[in-house]
Amino acid sequence: MAASKDKDPSLKDKNELTTAWCDESTRLLLDKYEQYLPLIGPMKRFKCKKSMWIQISNDILTELNIVRSSTQCENRYKTILKRKMQSVRSNQQSGAKRTRVDFEEELNKIKAIDDSLEPEVMQGPGKIIEKQQENIAMDPKVTKSQKAPKKMSISETLLRIQKDKEKKRERRHTEKLDILRSFMRIFSNDTIDSNRDSTDNDTIDLHQDSTTDNDTIDLNQDSSSD
Questions:
Q1: How is residue 143 annotated by DSSP?
Q2: Nearest to residue 88, comparing CAs of 121, 117, 131, 132?
Q3: For the packed helices 104-113 and 23-36, what is the interaxial angle rounded to 10 degrees?
Q4: What is the pLDDT of residues 80-100, one digit of tens each?
Q5: Residue 199 Ramachandran class (φ > 0 left, ψ -120 to 50 alpha, else beta)
Q6: Among 28, 51, 81, 192, which residue has the least CB neighbours within 10 Å?
Q7: What distance in Å separates the CA atoms of residue 59 and residue 27, rounded to the nearest whole number?
Q8: Any residues with CB less than 8 A from the CB of 207 and at least 6 apart, and which?
Q9: What is the pLDDT of residues 143-173, one digit of tens each?
Q10: With contact defined as beta carbons under 8 Å apart, do 46 and 55 qualify?
Q11: Spans of biased composition, class Polar residues (predicted)?
């Protein structure tokens, strides 16, 4: 009965092979990443990194007969980067024992073509300054020229608010001037029309007076004739 409960050694080896990452599979992953990274983007072999991870998963299965999903490949790569960052941070501390960086050679090759591989670590006076960089270099939806929004200081924020207020004030002043010009234009047109009507009425009155005078002259002439 005890023998029946023992696990098949070959099955155990197979499970370890499919769940744990060995150096061989990790190096293949990094080599493929270095190979495929320049091929990501519009009009290239891979439209996005997701497609690249799928191809790397297929390569590992084909070359090593190890099953790895695209998500597992991506997470393994992130783990390697995280461990390197921890090693670099540890090595920057004074008096600390130097920590070995796993897969340093492969990562240096990738860094040569992708400078956003890792955060920049600079040692300042008595402290370590770490500048985080997001790995967005080859994403077709995000270009390298795009940067994270800069955090404004309080004085910069107040200055920006003041500028916005001035712009709004100028806009309101301009709108008021436009309205005033419209009223003046309407008033001017009404005045011109009124003067024109008055002139026309005077002309009619003159014409009527002339007609009346002519009629009077005619009547006087008729009376003289009689």
A1: -
A2: 121
A3: 10
A4: 999 988 888 888 877 767 878
A5: alpha
A6: 192
A7: 12
A8: none
A9: 445 555 666 788 788 888 888 888 888 888 8
A10: yes
A11: 211-226
Q: 72: how many CB neighbours lie within 10 A of its CB? A: 17
Per-residue burial over 112-133, b = 16 or more CB atoms within 10 Å of its CB, e = otherwise: eebeebbbeeeeeeeeeeeeee
Name the DSSP class of 39.
G
Element (H, E) at 120: strand 120-124
Comparing CA positions, the residue from 166, 145, 162 lying closest to residue 154 is 162
State the pTM of this model: 0.46
Two tokens at 101? 């960086």
Q: How far apart are CA 15 and CA 12, in angstroms?
A: 5
What's the whole-number mean pLDDT along residues 162-189? 87
Measure the CA–CA gap between 183 and 18, rounded to whole angstroms.
Answer: 83
